[in-house]
Design goal:
Helices cover 57% and strands 17% of the residues. The longest helix is centred in the last third of the chain and has 51 residues, at 205-255. The radius of gyration is 35 Å and the shape is rod-shaped. It has a four-stranded antiparallel sheet. The protein contains twelve helices and ten strands. It has two domains: 3-203, Roll (Endonuclease I-creI), CATH 3.10.28.10; 224-313, no CATH class. Helix 2 (19-33) packs across helix 3 (52-66), helix 2 packs parallel to helix 6 and helix 10 packs across helix 12 (293-313). By secondary structure, it is an alpha+beta fold. Bound molecules: zinc ion. Zinc ion binds next to helix 2 and helix 6. The site of zinc ion has 7 residues, from helix 2 and helix 6.
């Protein structure tokens, strides 16, 4: 099951006892998800989803609040993997009562122009703002699998709805961005922390825990990778320097002989030859008395310099 589907399943199971919250959650679902289609000259007011639990949830919410139910139609489609598509049809209900029911949700149907008009809605309680945010996400929201990337979006057919959504999120200090994609106005979040905050706001607490766990694992994995990369880089540096030193010492040995070097240099030269895999500080600790890393480096540089001079002289 996709992460989106998992979250939506969790959201439809939230026990909502506050009647106003139920109203605003339904407003969110309808405002984001309803569409008016003209089919064979007939106007149809539809809510279409591939999510069975969402269609059941919406169906029972309308029934609870409106005391009348939309028609539920299931279509089988061969698109992708034999998905089922659920259509909730409100067309038969488009009477005076239904119109005023929709008006309470800030929706008005202009049948002659086959258009849905949206009006701004005022939400006074924070719990209801949460419910509204949840409703819209249920209808048209999606989230990518956090194992792969962080992306959450909710799309709207109308710019007013997108701006309203962004403002509702601001109530909880979540800053969302907006982009126009085809004829949709898409509100999105790309930061892991924003998505976690969002899930908290809409009450998807199980999904939130799952996402936090994945973030922790990802974090640790990144840290380990960073450390390994640093160690590899250091090791390469050590190996390259060591190869250069060994090269110089051998050159000196073949030309003037190691014995020709001053005592301190001779000592480090033999140590380096015998321990090509040791770091400078390790070499320093093998000396008696111990010598600092920079002290060792200083002596080996002198050896490099002597070798370079010999090479120049062509000896
Ligand atoms: Zn409320």
């Amino acid at each position: 099951m996709s992460f989106s589907l998992e979250i939506k399943r969790e959201l439809t199971r939230i026990d909502n006892s506050h009647i106003n919250c139920m109203h605003y959650e339904l407003s969110g679902m309808l405002r984001a998800g309803i569409s008016l289609k003209t089919h064979q000259g007939r106007k149809r007011l539809l809510f279409v989803t591939e999510n069975a639990s969402l269609s059941r949830h919406l169906f029972s919410r309308v029934k609870d609040l409106y005391q009348s139910s939309p028609e539920l139609i299931m279509l089988k489609t061969r698109r992708f993997h034999n998905h089922n598509v659920y259509m909730l049809e409100f067309s038969e209900l488009l009477n005076q009562d239904m119109q005023s029911f929709l008006n309470k949700m800030g929706i008005s149907i202009n049948e002659t122009e086959a258009q849905i008009q949206y009006y701004p809605i005022e939400i006074s309680d924070k719990c209801c703002v949460r419910a509204y945010l949840r409703g819209c996400f249920l209808a048209t929201g999606s989230i990518s699998d956090p194992d792969r990337s962080y992306h959450l979006e909710v799309s709207f057919a109308n710019e007013l709805l997108a701006e309203e959504y962004i403002n509702c999120l601001k109530v909880f200090d979540v800053e969302a961005k907006q982009i126009k994609r085809k004829r949709y106005f898409v509100v999105y979040l790309k930061e892991g922390q924003d998505i976690v905050d969002f899930l908290n706001v809409i009450g998807a607490h199980n999904a939130l825990m799952k996402m936090e766990n994945i973030r922790i694992i990802k974090d640790v994995r990144n840290q380990v990778n960073r450390l390994v990369n640093c160690e590899t880089a250091n090791l390469e540096k050590t190996v390259n320097a060591s190869l250069r030193h060994v090269d110089s010492i051998r050159y000196i040995n073949c030309t003037i002989g190691i014995e020709a070097l001053p005592g301190a240099l001779r000592e480090i030269a033999s140590l380096r030859l015998e321990n090509p895999d040791k770091s400078l500080s390790e070499l320093g600790k093998m000396l008696n008395p111990n010598l600092s890393k920079s002290g060792v480096n200083h002596r080996l540089k002198k050896i490099d310099k002597i070798a370079d001079e010999l090479r120049l002289k062509g000896q």
